[in-house]
Structures are given as structure tokens and as C-alpha cells.
Amino acid sequence: MSETPIDSSKRTWLIASGCAGAVGGVATAVPFVSTFQPSEKAKAAGAAVEVDISDLKPGEKVTVEWRGKPVWIIKRTPEQLAALPSLDAQLADPKSERKQSELTPEYARNEARSIKPEILVAVGICTHLGCSPSDKFVPGAQPSLPNDWKGGFLCPCHGSTFDMAGRVFKNKPAPDNLEVPPHMYLSETKLLIGEDKKA
């Protein structure tokens, strides 16, 4: 049986159409495969956030967004700091021992729940159902708060209360203290939210 020779012009067309098909396949596959890469917006959403706190005065709070969550940075007054130890007996987890690795990094497992005592960095989301607590920094009797209130946060949804270190009071719907996100100081006045390990 003898092989029929292929016409050279047909061979050229076969090679050309094969190459065109391969190029078309690659052109179609590249956009599809690229959809598996995170978008720039997604990368930015998880990126660390640098915050200048040089203008933050005692008793003030600034809110930044990190990973779609509000992160509070509060400069506590000496009076607010002094009140923290007196509240331990009223709190559900005064030393942040429950859910340690999830909600409180090692360097924030202290009375002030912070690296620097005067600066609190906390995620402003209630650990009950994800509402955002309101600032109740002024001490004293107020609606929905005890008469000996020392300052902190009130979740208006179900009445959970947190002290000025984001620690939840006993017998409240919220099961845990407010989350302390990973963070570190780049300088005396610059914070990095989202990273806590120097490269």
C-alpha cells in the first residue's frame, strides 16, 4: 500500500490553521486562568494599613478600614487607664485568656490589651452578632449603662458592654472581648494595622 503524498499547499494550510487554533486556544485560556488571581481590589482589602496618630489627643478615637472591618485607634486618658484594673471582677475575660490566638495577639494579653498602654487598637465589631458598638467614653450614669460606668462601648443591638480596653462585661450576649488586630509601631507616631512582624 503506497502513501498518497500531501500537496505542499495543503500542508501549509494545515500547519497555518493548526497554529492559528493554538494561538486562539492560548488567547482564550489566559483571561480564564487570570480570573484565579486575586484582583487589585482584593489584594488591597487584605493589605496592611499605615496610620499616622501624631494628631490623636487623649480621649479621641480614629477609625480606619482594614479587610473591610472598622479598626478603632483610641488614645486613652490617664483616668481611663487607671480605671481598667478596678473592673476585672465585672468582666467575662479580664486577661483575654479565651480565644487567645484568634482575637488577641500575645503582645496585647495584658490589662490594657495593647502594646503601648495609652493606645488601644481594636476591631469595632461586637463579638455577638457583628454590630458596631457605640462610644460611651463619658463616665457616670446613662441610659442602658450602670450608674458606676467608667467609660467604654455599648452595643445598641443587644446591650453588650465593653470597657475602654474592649473587654466584655459578664452576663452580656457578646461571648468575647473585641478583637485586637495584628499591628505594630513603625515609629512613635505611625502604626501599621494588619502586620506585626518586621521583615
Could you characterize the architecture of this molecule?
The chain has 199 residues and is an alpha+beta fold. It is 22% helix and 19% strand. It has one domain (44-193): Rieske [2Fe-2S] iron-sulphur domain (Rieske Iron-sulfur Protein, 3-layer Sandwich). The protein has 4 helices and 9 strands; from the N terminus they run H-H-E-E-E-H-H-E-E-E-E-E-E. The longest helix is centred in the N-terminal third of the chain and has 27 residues, at 8-34.
CATH superfamily: Rieske [2Fe-2S] iron-sulphur domain
The residue ranges in which pLDDT falls below 50 over 5 or more consecutive positions are 33-39
CATH class call: Mainly Beta
Average pLDDT works out at: 83
SSE layout and pairing:
Blueprint: H1 8-34, H2 40-46, E1 49-52, E2 61-66, E3 69-75, H3 78-83, H4 100-103, E4 119-123, E5 134-136, E6 152-154, E7 161-163, E8 183-185, E9 190-193
Antiparallel strand pairs: 1-9, 2-3, 3-4, 5-6, 6-7, 8-9
Question: What are the key terms here?
Answer:
3-stranded antiparallel sheet, 22% helix, Rieske Iron-sulfur Protein, 199 residues, alpha+beta, 4 helices
Short description:
This protein is α+β, with helices and mostly antiparallel strands. It is built from 4 helices and 9 strands.
